[in-house]
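Thread: "does anyone have the structure for this chain?"

Original post by V.I.:
We have the sequence but no experimental structure in hand. Need at least a predicted one for the grant figures.
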Amino acid sequence: MRANQAVRWIAAAATILLGFLLYSLAAHSANPNVLWQIVHGQCVPDEQQHGEPKPCAEVDLNNGLARGFAVLKDINGASQFLLIPTGRVDGIESAALLAPDAVNYFDDAWTARSFAEKALGRTMPSDALSLAINSEFGRTQNQLHIHIDCIRPDVRDILRSESDHIGSHWTLLTRPLAGHYYRALRVMGTTLDGNDPFKLLAQGIAAARADMGSYTLVVAGMQFGGQPGFVILEDNANLVRGDRGSGEDLQDHACALAKQ
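Reply from O.Q.:
Generated one for you, tokens below.
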């Protein structure tokens, strides 16, 4: 009898614990400021006081708190990381991203892909990795964050097949990506230094500059004629058509490409 009671007690305790965890996760996802609270309230102070950016993987304050960034492991996926400014930046709609001296967070995020590769235990081809920022309609957090992770295999295949169609001007792809038609832009080089996707979007598409918040951006490594470069993708949210402008949908948080 005592053994049965112990079993029932353990089962009840486990149920309570599970309920608490589920409640905590729900509260976590419902808080639109949790990323800011983690970076501003934990990672930055830990880095400043102890040289340990926990729970972040990295905090870079070389250019000051207002222009620094943190890299945080996302709770979803084995290799997904987030690059988050250490200064307050709401999202893609922030005017500060288009200032002449704006930080090129995408360039920093591309460098930070090394954290995803470390999590995967291998170096990945550049066209297997991607960066994404969602529109204000496709995000849950009110602090700018760039998703760093693998690209979906089907998306990579389509981009490879469209590579000759992608040039130095924004061009509509002939095939949809994750159900939505994106425009693409070619950028050459091994880094994004000097090619800030936020500015390229605002400068190349007049409607975007007036309404940056409704746009999503995705960057993926590419080879063009055997030369390294990037394809930059943009999509404009359209809630009537069920498009929330979530470029993160082009990423694969299970990273099937790492298993091939």
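V.I.: this helps a lot. DSSP finds seven helices and nine strands in the chain.
O.Q.: and The longest helix spans residues 2-30.
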